[in-house]
Each structure stands twice: as structure tokens, then as C-alpha cells.
Design brief:
By secondary structure, the protein is α+β, with helices and mostly antiparallel strands. Helix content is about 40%, strand content about 20%. A four-stranded antiparallel sheet has the order 2-3-1-4. α3 packs across α4. The chain is globular, with a radius of gyration of 14 Å. Bound molecules: inosine-5'-diphosphate (IDP). Belongs to the NDK family. Major role in the synthesis of nucleoside triphosphates other than ATP. The ATP gamma phosphate is transferred to the NDP beta phosphate via a ping-pong mechanism, using a phosphorylated active-site intermediate. Its EC number is 2.7.4.6.
Length: about 140
């Protein structure tokens, strides 16, 4: 399997509860390398642009408010099959459905406040990484 990069976000419910280190340990234990990382405060407009694909969904406004409510940690994870591996480590969107040991099973508070975002495919990973990071910030 090829080495890939994927975009991860540690969401406000997790940064608020000081869970960044515990979540990063899950990534590293799964063989994912954190090759770029920064803590930022999104505006609601920036959150809306990032999640534009969901703009027709009923939870869009709530999601954008939440993502702008407190700082997030945006990061690039690298590894063999990193996109699928990260989705596996994250667990299902709704923590009630997430497998034991996954980030969302252990830390998520609800289907909306579910601690992490991870890109779902190679094209979205490339777009999402470019949304937050310049080439100079990606040191490999
Ligand atoms: P994913 O994050 O597991 O890829 P998506 O379906 O792409 O899940 O949804 C994006 C984000 O939108 C979720 O992670 C969650 O924060 C939020 N979301 C999804 N479904 C709901 C819902 O039914 N109510 C509130 N927020 C939701």
C-alpha cells in the first residue's frame, strides 16, 4: 500500500477537554506520523467553507458554529494507507456506533461533537491539506 497523507482536525470538544495528547497517541500507536500540526481558531465563515460539501444538510449551521466555538488542532498524518487507517482509528461518526478503542468511542460527546475530522478520500485529503497548510509547512 502506498504512503499517503490525510488531513485531521482535533475538534473543539476535544481541545476544550485537553485531549490533544491522548488523541495524538492513538494516531502514533496506529503507525500514523504527525508531519504537520497547528492550533488555530476558525471563524464561522472558514468552518463553513471547509464543510461546504455539507451546506444542504440540516446540521450545517450547528456544525459551523461548533467548529468556530473554540480552537482546533489541524494536522497532517502520514503513513501506509493513511486515509483509511485514520478513518479506522477515528471510528464511526456517531460515537454510539463507534468500535471499542476508537477515538470517537472513547472521547466523542455526540454525533456532532465527535472529537475528530479525517479526510475520506485521496482527492479530499489533497484539497483539505492545501486549505490549511502551505508546502513549506510539510516537512515529512
Ligand atoms: P465524518 O466526520 O465521520 O466523515 P460526515 O457525515 O462527513 O461524518 O459529517 C461531518 C460532520 O458533521 C461529523 O463529523 C459531525 O461533526 C457532523 N454531523 C454529522 N451528522 C450529524 C448530525 O446528524 N447531527 C449533527 N452533526 C452531525
Amino acid at each position: 500500500m502506498a504512503t499517503e497523507r490525510t488531513l485531521s482536525i482535533i475538534k473543539p470538544d476535544a481541545t476544550r477537554r485537553n485531549l490533544t495528547g491522548k488523541i495524538n497517541a492513538k494516531f502514533e500507536d496506529a503507525g500514523l506520523r504527525i508531519v504537520a500540526q497547528k492550533r488555530i481558531q476558525l471563524t464561522k465563515a472558514q468552518a463553513g467553507e471547509f464543510y461546504a460539501v455539507h451546506k444542504e444538510r440540516p446540521f450545517y449551521d450547528e456544525l459551523c458554529e461548533f467548529m468556530a466555538s473554540e480552537p482546533v488542532v489541524v494536522q497532517v498524518l502520514e503513513g501506509e494507507g493513511a486515509i483509511a487507517k485514520n478513518r479506522e482509528v477515528m471510528g464511526a461518526t456517531n460515537p454510539k456506533d463507534a468500535a471499542a478503542g476508537t477515538i470517537r468511542a472513547e472521547f466523542a460527546e455526540s454525533v456532532g461533537e465527535n472529537s475528530v475530522h479525517g479526510s475520506d478520500a485521496a482527492d479530499t485529503a489533497a484539497q483539505e491539506i492545501a486549505y490549511f497548510f502551505s508546502g513549506l509547512e510539510l516537512v515529512g
